[in-house]
Design brief:
The structure holds three protein chains of three kinds. By secondary structure, chain B is mainly α. Chain B contains 15 helices and no strands. The two termini of chain B are about 30 Å apart. Chain C has twelve helices and seven strands. Classes of the chains: A alpha/beta, B mainly alpha, C mainly alpha.
């Protein structure tokens, strides 16, 4: 279906993080190859969001190394800032800029960070917005859009930067149930175009459809990192995974 | 059932529901309430009749002589008639006083047009507004100082209401840039910068404005090389900017804290640097949040311009004080003070109303 | 450098696939370097500016023939500072005069704080009243008082006092109390260490009030009967000092002011400047205080009042047990800010000649010419008062903050 290269575009090596005395990430080791779709799941407080934020440099880590595209992510040396051009992020709370229109939201990144001209940026933005069927609202402001529409715009905004990797932090958790589907459709379409994706989510149906590997985290460590067939098969997989799946399915 | 049907079931309203009934129901509905109303009404009556008697009934607008004015016991509005130009424009050359008057009208027009939220809605309108301000300020400068055929009037002759307005507006606007830097510095991760900003803000907020005015007036000549001669008005302006920058910085810091963390994260995740994030994403949002507090600061600034009297500058209050010291009108003070008080009241109360209106508007928009 | 490129890159497998334009930055472009440079530059700038200023001062001072240092504090004052508690006159050293100014500032500030709080409370209650007339009148008061500059109000009250009659035709509202344009005179108890006894009486009163309060509360908790706890504490606070003072003053005479010549002799008096400063400060600040109190009370969520009423508590208890403690949390920080504002605003009294700290400083400056030292002393004193207040504020916030999980 999609080409997964042999080269890990993101690798986490023995990453540990403490919040004061709280050990939020314990010795995380993960390799993500280009074209691969990783879904990270786990109970709340397991550190999955923290791990994803650390890839981007939005969260600092005390021990270990994170390499994106072969370059170590380091805030003090400026590599984190340079790498963020190539790593797109979609947040749980959308975080659209309320004082800019939808079109301006999508254009401001390419224009200010990559120096792309306004016409080019707008053309690219309209292309992405049309693909998610929201182009007619390009001049409107975020507060007039529904949650699902805002999240779709957030995905477009991240895509307009032409990233190599997309990170998703629980993109559908803040949405009303009827809007979850439209956002998941967009993400599915994205995955079919071959984008490298790391998604933190509870949506198991979506996981089964698109994931190449499912990573489960609990209390800051990775318990399982296996393909979905193995993950959802009770017989072959870790009992803790089974307990977690029971909890989710009964929700 | 539908609203219309429900309304049809209600008994018809009595046609006498008028003012009297409302008064009865709201002001006299219990014993304690009635007592309170009566007491307050009595107080208001006494104050109002006293004021009206002083200001209107016993007042003399065109007395034959000064004695008659005093004997009547009321306000002597002839004083205002004689002195209003002195109070409003101070030492500005008498024949050219239409110039500061015109400048004041221009300022009012500029400020009022900037107050409508509609005028900062789109990027284009913001550019127009900015241009308008630049042109307006240029015209005001020419009107006040001279040039283009108008005679030259030195800065030290500017006094009265134009001086008050100028000190307040130039002070507040320059303050904004300094305060933004101070507020950002206070939140900075660079320790040296943060310490400097914190020290400045805490020291300035701990001392009264008068001490800063004295410091600027008396100490500045000592602290600077002897060749540098700073005019009086600039010293006062510097003291003002220094003082209000600290307070405004705290207000802006509150605004920066009120911008949701997710905005910082989203801008950062897109690869924006510190200054890009601040200028394009955070500050526009923070400034919108702090507008009501900024307006309140402006009101305080406008009132505090009256303090320049301690460094012998004649602002609106200073000219009123000087006017009443005229020996021909010995003993009259209430008329001058009332005149000036009305001016301050109008300006400050309307700004206060505006601040509340903006606050309500922001709250309403967040109801979404 | 080595640790920034992963081992994959060294092996060479992924050189082509690396993110093309991400390279290691040169050292001068890295955030940690830039941050260090900025900080060093800032520090250097501050030091340089300080050095430059000191150099200028050294140049300018000899020209104006003044020294530099605090020795002038021991010189005689050479001007009258007015009636005061420590008996300083024109021959006392300058530092004593500064103390007089400080005492005057504190005196008018504390009285102003008390008055403005009481006035503010009344106006706030009026503003929150359900009676629309009362509420509107309070609004008019607040807006008028807040929007007229304090200096104007001060000048007005000061000029107003000149309308008062001369001592010859003094107003006499109560026996022994005379209101003139030189001040308000009232009788005083001719007792040397009266002030000392006042403090003792107040301290004893506070102590007895708190003891009685504790006993009454304990009694109520054991027996379940309300013993009018409030009356006990008020009785202790006011009654005991009163008794003490009466005993103490029985033995001494009362000094009633009498008109001798052009002025009153005897008794104590308060100057028109003091009255003008006190009245204008209290009235001006009461507007702000009223708004602060109102926002505090309205900040207590309505659900709290509803819940308390549904429990059957009478309005009196709802207000004192539920609304007041929560309102205090919201109100105390800004109120402390108001009190500091009032203290700083007392400096405006320099314009009408009330001998508070700023007035004394300017007089000393004009006598001795030591501008820098005097203004620095002035600012240091105000700054200390501010810091004292904000540390009290922090302590208070810590005491009342909810322990959050």
């Amino acid at each position: 279906m999609n080409q997964i290269s042999a080269y890990p575009i993101i690798s986490l090596r023995n990453v540990s993080k403490w919040y004061g005395n709280l050990h939020v990430l314990r010795d995380i080791n993960l390799d993500v190859h280009e074209g691969e779709k990783i879904v990270v799941c786990g109970p709340s407080g397991s550190g999955k969001s923290t791990a994803v934020y650390a890839i981007n440099g939005l969260e600092a880590y005390q021990q270990g190394e994170i390499f994106v595209g072969g370059v170590k992510v380091s805030e003090a040396d400026g590599t984190a800032h340079d790498l963020r051009k190539h790593v797109g992020m979609v947040f749980q709370q959308f975080n659209l800029f309320p004082h800019l229109s939808i079109l301006e939201n999508c254009c401001i990144g390419p224009m200010k960070v990559k120096g792309i001209r306004r016409e080019e940026a707008e053309a690219r933005a309209m292309e992405e917005l049309t693909r998610v069927r929201i182009a007619d609202k390009a001049r409107k402001y975020p507060e007039t859009l529904s949650g699902g529409e805002q999240q779709r715009v957030a995905i477009c905004r991240a895509l307009c930067m032409s990233p190599r990797v997309m990170l998703f932090d629980e993109p559908t958790s803040a949405l009303d149930p009827e809007m979850v589907g439209e956002v998941l459709d967009v993400m599915t379409g994205l995955s079919e175009r071959g984008m490298t994706m790391i998604v933190v989510t509870h949506e198991m149906g979506f996981t089964r459809r698109i994931a190449d590997r499912v990573v489960m985290m609990e209390s800051g460590e990775i318990i399982e990192a296996v393909p979905p067939e193995q993950f959802f098969d009770r017989a072959r997989c870790n009992p803790r995974v089974g307990a977690f799946l029971d909890q989710i399915m009964h929700a | 059932m539908t609203t219309e049907a429900y309304h049809a079931l209600l008994p018809p309203k009595s046609p006498q529901q008028g003012v009297l009934v409302w008064i009865w129901k709201n002001l006299f509905n219990s014993l304690s309430n009635s007592l309170l109303t009566l007491i307050v009404l009595w107080i208001v009556y006494e104050v109002a009749t006293g004021a009206i008697r002083w200001a209107i009934i016993d007042a003399r607008v065109a007395p034959a002589n000064f004695r008659e004015c005093i004997d009547a016991g009321g306000a002597c509005w002839a004083f205002i008639q004689a002195k209003w130009r002195l109070i409003l424009f101070g030492t500005y050359p008498y024949d050219d006083q239409w110039r500061p008057a015109l400048a004041l009208i221009l300022v009012v027009v500029l400020v009022v047009s900037s107050c409508f939220p509609a005028s900062w809605a789109t990027q284009e309108r913001r550019r127009w507004l900015f241009g308008l301000w630049l042109v307006g300020l240029g015209v005001i400068g020419v009107l006040m100082a001279g040039g283009f055929g108008l005679s030259h009037v030195e800065v030290r002759f500017w006094s009265g209401l134009p001086l008050t307005v100028m000190l307040a507006s130039v002070g507040m606007v320059s303050c904004v840039f300094v305060s933004i830097l101070l507020a950002l510095g206070r939140r900075s991760e660079m320790h040296v910068v943060r310490w400097v900003c914190v020290a400045y803000i805490e020291v300035i907020r701990g001392v009264p404005l008068i001490s800063l005015l004295f410091m600027a007036n008396i100490m500045l000549p000592l602290l600077l090389p002897a060749e540098v001669n700073i005019p009086n008005i600039l010293r006062a302006q510097i003291a003002f900017i220094m003082f209000f920058a600290a307070y405004m910085a705290e207000t802006i810091r509150g605004g920066l804290q009120a911008v949701p963390q997710g905005q910082y994260a989203a801008a950062k995740a897109m690869g924006m640097g510190y200054w890009q994030t601040m200028i394009f994403i955070i500050l526009p949002q923070a400034m919108r949040i702090t507008i009501p507090s900024m307006v309140n600061l402006f009101i305080a600034g406008f009132k505090d311009t009256s303090l320049v009297i301690v460094i012998s500058m004649l602002d609106l209050l200073g000219t009123a004080n000087a006017a009443k010291a005229d020996p021909t009108w010995l003993g009259l003070f209430a008329e001058a003070y009332a005149f000036v008080a009305v001016i301050y009241l109008t300006v400050c109360a309307s700004m206060s109303w505006y601040s509340r209106w903006i606050e309500r508007r922001i709250a309403a928009r967040q109801q979404h | 450098m080595a640790q920034l490129i992963s081992r994959f890159d060294k092996v060479g497998r992924c050189k082509k696939k690396a993110l093309e334009d991400v390279r290691l930055r040169p050292v001068w472009s890295r955030p940690w370097f830039r941050s260090a440079v900025w900080q060093v530059l800032t520090a250097f700038l501050i030091v340089y500016v300080a050095y430059w200023i000191v150099a200028n001062v050294n140049d300018n001072l000899p020209r104006s023939n003044l020294g530099f240092g605090l020795d002038f504090l021991a010189l005689p004052t050479r001007f009258e500072v007015g009636p005061n508690y420590i008996g300083a006159t024109a021959t006392s050293p300058v530092w004593q005069t500064f103390i007089v100014g400080f005492i005057n500032t504190v005196r008018v500030s504390i009285l102003g704080i008390v008055c403005c709080t009481i006035l503010g409370l009344i106006v706030a209650l009026a503003r929150m009243s359900e009676n629309r007339l009362v509420s509107r009148v309070a609004l008019v008061y607040i807006e008028t008082v807040r929007n007229i500059p304090l200096l104007l109000q001060m000048l007005f009250w000061y000029a107003f006092s000149t309308l008062l009659p001369l001592p010859k035709e003094a107003l006499n509202p109560f026996p022994g109390v005379f209101v003139t344009n030189r001040g308000i005179y009232f009788p005083s108890i001719e007792f040397q260490s009266l002030h000392y006894w006042i403090f003792v009486a107040l301290a004893v009163g506070l102590l007895s009030a708190s003891l009685l309060y504790r006993r009454a509360v304990k009694y109520r908790e054991i027996n379940g009967k309300s013993h009018r706890v409030a009356w006990f504490s008020i009785g202790g606070l006011i009654g005991v000092p009163l008794v003490i003072l009466i005993f103490v003053s029985l033995g001494s005479g009362v000094d009633v002011p009498e008109l001798k010549g052009f002025n009153f002799r005897g008794g104590t008096n308060i100057t028109p400047e003091f009255v003008a400063v006190l009245v204008s400060l209290s009235v001006y600040q009461s507007g702000f205080a009223a708004e602060t109190i109102r926002s505090g009370v309205e900040g207590v969520r309505k659900g709290q009042v509803e819940a308390a009423r549904s429990l059957g508590l009478p309005l009196r208890l709802v207000m004192s047990k539920v609304v007041f403690p929560q309102a205090m949390r919201i109100v105390v920080p800004p109120m402390t800010g108001q009190y500091m504002s009032l203290t700083k605003n007392s400096s405006l009294a320099v314009v009408i000649g009330y001998p508070e700290l700023v007035r004394v400083s300017t007089a000393v400056i004009s006598e001795t010419g030591r501008a820098i030292e005097c203004i620095t002393i002035l600012m240091v004193i105000y700054l200390s008062l501010s810091l004292l207040t904000s540390s009290f504020m922090n302590w208070y916030n810590q005491q009342i903050s909810y322990v959050e999980r």
